[in-house]
Design brief:
The structure is a homodimer. Chain A is an all-alpha fold. Chain A contains 20 helices and 3 strands. The first copy, chain A, folds into 2 domains: 159 residues, no CATH class; 338 residues, Neurolysin, domain 3. Chains A and B meet through helix 1 and helix 2 of A and helix 1 and helix 2 of B.
């Protein structure tokens, strides 16, 4: 494509394309620096690395908010193709977010978050919410100022402006009815699941040790089977598993424990779901806004599709059971290593306090509580000092648990101290979409799950590639889901899935 | 320091300080991206990584050549301290280099080098100089254009302008007499060394295998003993050993072979010498031009001081011998693992064709030949098509070897194809300085070598830190050497060292 001889508005688009490509390359660099920070960096380099990362972030922000950007974005006329049009749309959205917030507020918010994160580490350890309150008040104030600024610029409510940072186009008005329905269904659903679980044989424990090298080998084999391209990515170790890296260089991490062989594996398949999305983004739109993943709900749908819908399924365990047994020297015929037992192990229901340790069916309860709290806090309908009581009350309503200390309650997550308000709902929206995609993929691909039982994941990936991955940010999340499944995002498949897997229904 | 309330010229300096700090942080980011490329990056990411690296390099170049830079550099008045004055001096020098070359020439040179490097890999494999000639002509033309542009801007000869890129202030007029002297001395020196070697017992080979894990452990132990701070650096594996990374994050690499336990270790101590320099740079001048290493000669002096002067010495082997033997399960009393035998192994003289495999005493011959060739080529006194014949003739003069094919001659190094003209002499200048520093350190620290024999490297590092490392780019290389040793850089200590170690003289 060459717009050199085109009109002014085409040249404006071309100028934007080049500038956003630069920002894209800075983002790639930041992706590698961030990965390195969490996997390779020696401890003494943390201040220096923070400076390098901050410098690149500021350079990118300056490119985005250059004085002539608004004019270019207004004048730009992309070619007559849907992706190019969507690219301009996404450029405008990203620019609106960046330009809405004055630089000094960005910096104040970033400093407040850094201080609050530090305070949070101590406060969580000591289960001392009062000690965190002043710092968290500051973070919430800055967050509300950012929300107000973006709300005005984008014509959204403050909370919707925050949501839009993580999930373009997702609105509170879409989430509220869905989460209200879930809040209504969940307590019964969990009770039924616990009842049903009693009717099953108790899962047999696996006996270790489970050497790290064997876990890693099996993890790599599984990644490759799911479709991860090792020529364009890596698997490493970090304290908290993540999917990061850069274009053509998608890097996932996990953490191994010698006395457990399931957690690291499930972590790997979860991050592999994220990674397959990144590896499937369209190469023609590299480094452009439209070429990036659509948002966190769809991203989480891909990780949960792989982990929850696929790898915690009974058919998957058909394939995995002999591999697990061989990797860790289990006796042939030992019922602990049977697919049935392994499936029971990875679908055990046990209500608990900690979100990241929650099973599939109690997990949304944790999200609902956080969503209720943060919408009220951002709207100013609730005071931060009232958070612990309100949080614990709703945990009790939904899970029947009495939170004994804030360490196990509202102090457990880093999201709020670090300024990530509006992020939590994407986890459960992702779970809902994952179920809907799996149902549609099975409908379109009759032997999908039996292929998986035979270790053939290509039909699934072949279904996802054009329908989800290759669409990148070319349409809204609801549109992509509708085009892929024939229906708007809805809780039907998700509730059916939970009832079927955990309640023995259907 | 706060210049906000100062005069305009102080504010100009402060503005420059902030801009150069940004460039310093981009350099840190590039250091990690470069390290990652050679140690961690999956193969499929190479194009994408090249884009990210190019983008950061262009951003840095744009900061350096911003329209108001020349004016700021002219007006700037730093505080009355020598390092700040030197900082401005170094800012001006770096700016002059960057501003001298038009952007399209920078790009043309970079493209020519990329193409030529690719052609070189094939040409070297096939020993086919003719196939490389067109691409190498282009690289040389672009290099001569850059040299001419910088020569005019800096008031230097073209070759001096190239040299100055790698080694600020080093001039051909300084090198010529030194290298002429070496060219005169070397053939006899090598002949004498080979004669002397015949009078010694033949070194006994070490019997392997030498497991990589044991080599790595010993390498780390040695690094730490030499003074490497593992909290601010790493050791990894790459195809070609290097020292890279970023401030507070100095990363060295080596390559292990299971059938040899000496090469990787000597690679590690060489790179540790580079790394100790970087780790010893003054923290107060982080990310500023004056805070960087002085140049490649001094850098190479630090690696060769550690490798050649220290770790291939008989006293070092006193300390190392029992460690090597223990690491690889040698029998106690086996003479192969004695300090004497190990010393003979690491000081063996064997004239050969390949520079990077050369021993200490024949190495400078390889450099002299390359220096003669590249000065003649840059000056236009020689045609590239005549290079192989001229190269081989001089190898024969200095080493008595007849180069059988260009793969083993002028095609062996990547420097010329990649556009690094003016780099070669720094290797031998570094070797000369290393000997001079060792002699001075021994004079100032009477038991230096016996401390080393006992594994105590702190006196040596204590001597180097204030005299070399902490001075960073605060003075010229000759000035730093003069202040450290009491004499201008000269070949006396180097020739004494070679005669003593290899000819049994003195």
């Amino acid at each position: 494509m060459n717009f050199q001889s085109g009109t002014t508005s085409q040249q404006a688009y071309e100028t934007l394309r080049r500038r956003f490509a630069r920002m894209g390359q800075i983002r790639n660099a930041l992706g590698i620096l961030g990965w390195d920070k969490d996997t390779m960096m020696p401890a003494g380099a943390s201040d220096s690395r923070a400076e390098s990362i901050a410098t690149l972030a500021v350079l990118s922000h300056e490119l985005m908010t250059a004085p002539d950007m608004a004019d270019l974005l207004e004048r730009a006329q992309p070619p007559e193709d849907a992706m190019a049009q969507a690219n301009l749309h996404e450029m405008r959205r990203q620019h609106a977010h960046a330009a809405a917030v004055p630089a000094d507020l960005v910096e104040a918010a970033s400093r407040a978050a850094s201080r609050c994160e530090m305070a949070w580490r101590t406060a969580r350890q000591n289960s001392d919410f009062a000690s965190l309150l002043p710092e968290l008040e500051t973070v919430l104030s800055r967050t509300r100022e950012i929300a107000a600024a973006k709300a005005e610029a984008l014509g959204l409510s403050p909370y919707d402006a925050l949501l839009d940072q993580y999930d373009a186009g997702t609105r509170q008005a879409d989430i509220d009815p869905v989460f209200t329905e879930l809040a209504h269904e969940l307590p019964d659903l969990i009770a039924t699941a616990l009842e049903h679980q009693k009717s099953l044989p108790a899962p047999l424990p696996l006996t270790g040790p489970f050497p790290v090298a064997a876990q890693e080998n099996l993890g790599r084999e599984t990644m490759r089977a799911l479709g991860f391209d090792m020529q364009r990515g890596r698997l490493d170790v970090s304290l908290h598993p993540f999917c990061g890296g850069a274009e053509d260089d998608v890097r996932i991490t996990t953490r191994y424990e010698e006395d457990d062989c399931i957690n690291a594996l499930m972590g790997i398949v979860h991050e592999t779901g994220h990674a397959l999305y990144e590896q499937g983004l369209p190469t023609a739109w590299r480094a452009q806004p439209v070429g990036g993943a659509r948002g966190m709900s769809l991203h989480e749908s891909q990780s949960l599709l792989m982990e929850m819908q696929v790898c915690r399924s009974r058919p998957f365990m058909e394939w995995m059971a002999p591999r697990l047994r061989a990797a860790f020297g289990g006796a042939s015929g030992d019922p602990a290593w049977s697919a049935d037992n392994l499936h029971r192990l990875v679908t055990r229901v046990r209500p608990g306090f900690i979100r990241v340790d929650a099973d599939e069916i109690t997990y949304p309860a944790h999200i609902l509580v956080r969503y209720e709290m943060e919408t009220a806090l951002v709207a100013g309908r609730m005071k931060l000092r009232d958070l612990p009581e309100a949080f614990n009350a709703r945990i009790h309503d939904l899970l029947g648990l009495k939170v004994p200390e804030d360490r196990l309650g509202c102090l457990q997550d880093i999201h709020w101290p670090s300024g990530s308000w509006g992020y939590f709902p994407t986890y459960t929206l992702g779970a809902i979409i994952a179920a809907q995609l799996r149902e549609a993929a099975e409908r379109d691909t009759p032997n999908l799950m039996s292929a998986i039982a035979g270790g053939d994941f290509a039909p699934l990936l072949g279904w996802l590639r054009p329908r989800i991955h290759a669409r990148a940010s070319g349409a809204s999340t609801p549109q992509i889901v509708r085009d892929a499944t024939g229906a708007a995002p809805n809780t039907g498949p998700y509730l059916r899935h939970l009832r079927q897997r955990y309640c023995g229904q259907g």
